[in-house]
Amino acid sequence: MSFETDFLIIGSGIAGLTFALKASTKGKVTIVTKKRKKESSTNYAQGGIATVLSPLDSFENHVKDTLDAGAGLCDKKAVDFIVKNGPEVIEELINLGVNFTKEKNSGNYDLGREGGHSHSRVIHSQDFTGKEIERALISACNSNSNIKILENHLAFDLLTDYHLHGAKEFDKNNITCYGAYVWDSKNSVVKIFRAKFIILASGGMGKVYLHTTNPEIATGDGVAIAYRAGAKVANLEFMQFHPTSLYAPNHPTFLISEAVRGFGGILKTADGKTFMEKYSPTQKSLAPRDIVARAIDAELKKRGDEFVYLDVTHLPKDETKRTFPNIYKKCKELLNLDFTKEKIPVVPSAHYQCGGIITNLKGETNIKRLYACGEVACTGLHGANRLASNSLLEALVLSKAIYQELETKNLAVFNCPTFPEWSEEGTTSGEELVLISHNIKEIKTLMWDYVGIVRSNLKLERAQKRIKLIKKEVKDFYNKTKLSSELLEVRNLIACADLIVRCAKMRTESRGLNFNIDFPNQNEKIEDSVLWRFDAPSTLE
Question: For residues 241 and 289, is the Cβ–Cβ distance under 8 A?
Fold first, then answer.
C-alpha cells in the first residue's frame, strides 16, 4: 500500500503545522501523526514564546540571556538568527488568529518573565499558550484542501538508498531519504509514504524517563528513525528537567509553568524556608532551569522530602487566578488545593531534549531531502540548557526557514522511487505484550535513577550495561513478532536511552544539564557530543 505526496511531515506540533501551511501553497502536503492531531508537546506548552517586543528590551539582551543559559555550547549564529526572526513569526501567528493575552489598561500584549530572562519578553495566551496556538494552526490546516492530516499513523523507518540497493552499495556519506514506512495503528497495516521532501517534526523523548511533563507520544521516534537511517545526532545528554511539575501521586504529571515564578512565586522547602539563595544568590527562584532543578534535587536528598513548595500565597489572589486559570483549575481538580491560600507541592520532571538531529539553519540534515525542526532537531540554539520559552520560537523560525529553502525548488525534478512492501513473513502475533510493558517500565526507571538530574560514572556504566541487554531483548522480539504501536515505541525508547547514555559518557565534565559528580568542573574546551552510525543502518536494530 503506497502513497505519494510532495511534502511528508512527521509530527503535528507547531513546527509541522506551520511548515504545512506554508508548503501547501507549493504542493500537496501529508502530515502523519501517531495520535490525535492536537496531541503534541506544543499543546501542553503553558508559558509562551520568548521574543523581543518591548521597547525596553533588545535582541542583544535576548541573545545574551540565551547564551548564558546555554553554558557555552550555543551556536552564536543560530542564536542571532532565531532571536532576530522572532517578532516576524509572532506577527504571522497573530494574523492567523492566535489570541495572545493583552494588558488590561494599555491594550499592549502582556509580556511575562521567566527564569534566566533579564527582561519581560514572553508573549502568551494566559497559561495555555500551546493549546491556543494548536487551535489556530489545526483550524487553518483543516480548511486547506492541499493538506491531509492522518491520525494514528506512526512513521517507524525512513526510506533511503539502503532499502533500494542493500548494504553492499550503501554509501553512508551520500544518503537520500525518499519517505517512510508508516504503521496505521487503527487498521494494523504498514503503509509506504513516498515524498519529494520529508520533514521530521515529531517532538521529543521525555517518555524515556519515569517522570515527565511530556505527552504519551513523546517516545523519541524522530531521533530514533533518523539515527537508524544515518543521520547525525548530538548533545542528547542535555535532557532538561523542568523544576516544577505538580506533585500529585497517581495522577499524570502536570507542569507548573515557569511563568508562575516569573510572576513572583517563591520556592520553599517543606518547612516553609526559602533555599534558592544558596544556589543562585542573585536570581534565586528565577535562576535558569538546570540550576533550579539541581537545587531542588539537592534539597530533597538532603532532607529526605518528596517535594518542595512553590508559594504564591503572598501575591494578589484575583490577579494570580486570572493569570493562571488552567493551573488553578488543575490544582483544585487533582489535589483540591487553592493556590491562593496553600503552597503548591512541586518536583522536577523530564521536560525537553536540548539535543537532537543535527541541522543547519535551513533545517537540512546530513541526509538529502530530509529536514528536521522543533524539539527533534539540534540547531545549536539551546546549547547545554534551553532558555525558557525559546522552544516554540525555534520551531516557528526554523519551519519558516525550511520552507524558504524549498519554495524555490522545482518539485518535478525530484523522483520518488518504488520501494518493496513491508513483509512480516516469519513473524507471529505479539500475544505476550507484558514483555513490552515490562521493558518500557524498566527503561524509564533505570533512566530516572541512573541518568537523571545528577549523574556519576558508576550510574552511567550500570545504565549502559542494562540498556545493552534490553536492546537485545527488544531486537529479538521485534524480529519475530508482528508489528504493534507498543513494539515500535519500545524500540525507539531503548534506542534513545542508549543514545542519551552514550552522549553522557562522552562528556567528561559538568556543563549545563549534564551534572556528573565524578567531573564536577566545567572544562575550557567546549564540544558537541556527536554520534553517527558508521555502519549501514539495519531496519532490525
Answer: yes
Q: Kindly report which listed range (211-225, 287-301, 346-360, 523-537) carries the lowest average pLDDT score.
A: 523-537
User: Are 142 and 190 found together in one domain?
Assistant: yes
| Domain enclosing residue 96, as ranges | 2-238+354-413
Which residues are known catalytic residues?
A: 289
Q: At what angle do helices 14-23 and 86-96 cross, to 10 degrees?
A: 80
pLDDT band, very low/low/confident/very high, at 540 (cuts 50, 70, 90):
very low
Question: Could you tell me if 106 and 197 lie in one domain?
Answer: yes
Residue 301 lies in a domain: yes
| Distance between CA atoms of residues 428 and 450, nearest Å | 35
Place of cell 535576548: 62
Residues facing 295 on adjacent strands:
none
pTM score of the predicted model? 0.92
CB 342: neighbour CB atoms within 10 A?
15
187 closest CA partner among 485, 394, 460? 485
What does the alpha-carbon distance between residue 244 and residue 225 come to, in Å, rounded to a whole number? 31
Percent of the chain residues topping a pLDDT of 90? 77
As given in the structure block, the three cell numbers for residue 301 are 536528598
Between CA 203 and CA 246 the distance in angstroms is: 22
